[in-house]
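Q: what sequence does this backbone want?
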């Protein structure tokens, strides 16, 4: 497979365009009413632990004081961020400002993507679009006198943690059986356009139906499911479909760990992760709810794709990870002399002509 050549500048422009899209979405008529607070912020606050709920409750009541004015301010901020990022002379400032704003949105508007509640999945948008904006912005910051330097190599560990976390969350109670997953997808049919509602309904019912598959011929899986899941498994009867859940969790774990593989295997796993993220985006996130009139961003699916493309554009990643591994080993062994030799140096990215 030929080496993919990606210009970091193209990734910056793509991120800027997403911010412009968010600003345009903020200008939808319904966003200037209380619907923004009541239909976007309030539902996200449900089921969150106290400190997260307090932050979102504050934001909710603040926006409700003057919905139109606050929404206009939010739109102006996001349109400005997109413009600053795209304009080359202000790219660095725009990326830093977008990271700050993304953290505010992630905490006050998205409730940290639901990660503290334990009731979230990559399927429905975890860990939140805003934190992906933040991390991408930091990874794409230009370096002094090296505007075309490669994106930061630590983005590998962002991908690793997100997908490993997704696999773990998939096994938590309340989202650890086929009925839960099928119900999540089926419920998206309400209010969706006909073709999307039909897709949600059929896929949701199909997944729920998988729960009736018998484990009788798979005693090992019965034992694994009994240890891993919250509900008991009784041989010879219908059950919540642990094979599906274990499969989903395993796929997400492999996609996360796959980013550490060298060469073509890393690319395969990143591409697989991007495809799965898009499938989640369509089925679990209903393409961001573009039809609702209160869509604030495209949700996390497209950002996972941008994250994957950015990873594929990091030059010399194998060498950088090798250096990082040696540095960690030296640190753990207390070898300060060798530690100084293993400083991870950035590698220049190749530019698309």
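A:
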């Amino acid at each position: 497979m030929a080496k993919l050549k990606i210009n970091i500048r193209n990734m910056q422009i793509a991120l800027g365009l997403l911010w412009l899209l968010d600003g345009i979405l903020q200008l939808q008529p319904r966003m200037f009413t209380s619907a923004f607070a009541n239909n976007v912020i309030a539902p996200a606050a449900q089921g969150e632990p106290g400190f997260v709920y307090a932050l979102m409750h504050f934001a909710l009541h603040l926006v409700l004081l003057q919905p139109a004015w606050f929404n206009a301010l939010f739109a102006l901020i996001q349109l400005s961020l997109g413009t600053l990022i795209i304009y080359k002379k202000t790219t660095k400032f725009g990326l830093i400002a977008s990271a700050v704003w993304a953290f505010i949105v992630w905490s006050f508007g998205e409730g940290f993507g639901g990660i503290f509640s334990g009731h979230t999945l990559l399927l429905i948008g975890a860990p939140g679009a805003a934190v992906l904006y933040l991390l991408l912005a930091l990874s794409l910051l230009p370096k002094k006198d090296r505007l075309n330097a490669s994106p930061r190599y630590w983005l590998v560990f962002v991908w690793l943690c997100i997908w490993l976390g997704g696999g773990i969350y998939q096994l938590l109670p309340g989202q650890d059986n086929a009925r839960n997953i099928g119900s999540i997808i089926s419920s998206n049919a309400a209010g969706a356009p006909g073709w999307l509602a039909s897709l949600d309904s059929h896929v949701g019912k199909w997944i729920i139906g998988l729960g009736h598959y018998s484990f009788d011929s798979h005693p090992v899986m019965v034992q694994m499911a009994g240890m891993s899941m919250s509900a008991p498994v009784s041989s010879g009867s219908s059950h919540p479909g642990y094979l599906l859940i274990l499969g989903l969790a395993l796929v997400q774990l492999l996609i996360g760990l796959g980013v550490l593989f060298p060469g073509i295997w890393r690319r395969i796993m990143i591409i697989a992760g991007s495809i799965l993220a898009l499938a989640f985006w369509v089925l679990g996130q209903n393409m961001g709810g573009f039809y609702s009139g209160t869509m604030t961003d495209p949700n996390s699916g497209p950002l996972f794709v941008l994250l994957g493309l950015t990873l594929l554009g990091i030059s010399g990643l194998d060498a950088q990870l090798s250096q990082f591994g040696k540095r960690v080993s030296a640190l753990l062994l207390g070898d300060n002399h060798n530690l100084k030799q293993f400083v991870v140096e950035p590698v220049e990215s190749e530019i698309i002509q």
